[in-house]
């Protein structure tokens, strides 16, 4: 009954929901707008994101997931409930739901996620690790006896894993990801141009202008912000070469972490990875020139997933169909009577 199998990519920046056989049916920011006077949720997703940086004092636009962990359990629950009810309105047959959770999540936090999904109407809840879901969603058959390496660069964390025979062989996680790039670009613009810009502008610079060396890509973008010298609005141009200083140290950290995982990988699996290459997934993998830079540093072919944004959600939905063949990184977390 695949039509009742739902996969949720619970990301720091974005929540993506996919249904087995139908693909991605929801892609919304992980943002909640709250009226502090009434302690009431006003909006979630795109509607709440539009309020970021533009709200009066009594309205807060909050990201309940921060740096790969849940920072606000109640708002995360509200977010999940609203989105699941939005995509699944049948009251006759309850769906099976698989949730891809941040790598650094604790047991208490995973329990909070499970409770939210059950409250939204799921009959069974499964949890899957992000690199496993990313590999499945990228078309890799992780059940075969061969080594596959995935580097998933999300919003809050970068998860790196070597997978074989349906389980993780080596894995690590680093607190450098898409949001870190945004923060560093914002700081760089502030120090280099004496202009304050918002996170959304920094994200656009990352997507449109930023690039890794030694790529020949070059671009520029007209940016508006507030001058730190005059306090007045200012318009200026940022070029690709202006952002190297912010981008390259972070890219190097991710590459070093991938190198360390490769060093600890058994020789046979390392040979498979040399043959098949490394798969980059997640929104951060779309940074221009990243695959080229990592290929040069690791001496292994590095390629970006065919669908880097949605592959985790697609893999999460599909994992329910192949769950019997998955070893580590996949578990039935459905609450049972007497279970604590």
Short description:
By secondary structure, the protein is α+β, with helices and mostly antiparallel strands.
Task: Supply the helix-strand structural class.
Answer: alpha+beta
Question: What is the β-strand count?
Answer: 19
Which strand order do you get reading across the main beta sheet?
3-2-1-9-10-19
Compute the number of structural domains: 2
Strand/helix succession: EEEEEHEEEHEHEHEEEHEHEEHHEHEHE
CATH superfamily of the largest domain: ATPase, nucleotide binding domain
Mean pLDDT equals 89
Cα(first) to Cα(last) distance is 29 Å
Low-confidence stretches: none
Helix content: 25-40%
The top-level CATH class of the largest domain is Alpha Beta
- Please report the number of helical segments: 10
Radius of gyration: 21 Å
In the CATH scheme, what's the topology name of the largest domain? Nucleotidyltransferase, domain 5
Largest sheet: 6 strands, mixed
CATH second-level architecture of the largest domain: 2-Layer Sandwich
CA-based shape: flat
% residues in beta strands: 25-35%
Structure, described:
This protein is α+β, with helices and mostly antiparallel strands and 340 residues long. The chain has two domains: 2-132 and 313-332, 2-Layer Sandwich (Nucleotidyltransferase, domain 5), CATH 3.30.420; 143-305, 2-Layer Sandwich (Nucleotidyltransferase, domain 5), CATH 3.30.420.40. 33% of the residues lie in helices and 28% in strands. The chain is built from ten helices and 19 strands. The protein has helices at residues 46-49, 73-87, 107-119, 130-137, 178-193, 199-208, 244-263, 267-276, 290-298, 311-318; strands spanning 5-10, 14-19, 23-29, 32-35, 40-44, 59-62, 65-66, 69-70, 96-101, 124-129, 148-153, 158-164, 167-174, 195-196, 220-227, 233-239, 278-281, 302-304, 330-332. The strands form five sheets. The chain has a six-stranded mixed beta sheet, with helices on both faces. Strands 13-12-11-17-18 form a five-stranded mixed beta sheet, with helices on both faces. A three-stranded antiparallel beta sheet has the order 5-4-6. A hairpin with a 3-residue loop joins strand 1 and strand 2 (14-19). The longest helix has 20 residues, at 244-263. It is flat. The mean pLDDT is 89.
């Amino acid at each position: 009954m695949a039509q009742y199998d739902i996969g949720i990519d619970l990301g720091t920046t974005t929540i993506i929901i996919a249904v087995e056989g139908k693909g991605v049916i929801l892609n919304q920011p992980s943002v909640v707008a709250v009226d502090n006077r009434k302690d009431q949720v006003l909006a979630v997703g795109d509607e709440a994101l539009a309020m970021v940086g533009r709200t009066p004092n009594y309205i807060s636009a909050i990201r309940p997931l921060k740096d790969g962990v849940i920072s606000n359990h109640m708002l995360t629950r509200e977010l999940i409930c609203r989105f699941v009810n939005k995509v699944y309105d049948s009251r006759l047959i309850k769906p099976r739901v698989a949730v891809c959770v941040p790598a650094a999540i604790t047991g208490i936090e995973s329990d909070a996620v499970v409770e939210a999904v059950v409250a939204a109407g799921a009959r069974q809840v499964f949890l899957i690790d992000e690199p496993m879901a990313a590999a499945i969603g990228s078309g890799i058959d992780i059940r075969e006896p061969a080594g596959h390496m995935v580097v998933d660069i999300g919003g809050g964390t970068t998860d790196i894993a070597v997978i074989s025979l349906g389980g993780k062989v080596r894995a690590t996680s680093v607190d450098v990801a898409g949001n870190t790039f945004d923060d560093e670009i914002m700081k760089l613009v502030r120090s280099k141009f004496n202009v304050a810009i918002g996170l959304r502008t920094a994200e656009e610079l990352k997507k449109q202008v930023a690039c890794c060396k030694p790529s020949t890509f070059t671009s520029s973008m007209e940016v508006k912000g507030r001058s730190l010298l005059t306090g007045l609005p200012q318009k200026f141009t940022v070029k690709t070469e202006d952002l190297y200083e912010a981008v390259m140290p972070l890219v190097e950290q991710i590459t070093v972490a991938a190198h360390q995982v490769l060093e600890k990988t058994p020789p046979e699996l390392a040979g498979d990875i040399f043959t098949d290459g490394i798969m980059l997934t997640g929104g951060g993998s779309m940074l221009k020139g990243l695959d080229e830079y990592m290929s040069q540093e690791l001496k292994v072919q590095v390629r970006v997933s065919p669908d880097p944004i949605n592959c985790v959600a697609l893999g999460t939905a599909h994992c329910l169909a192949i769950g019997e063949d998955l070893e580590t990184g996949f578990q039935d977390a459905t609450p049972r009577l007497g279970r604590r």
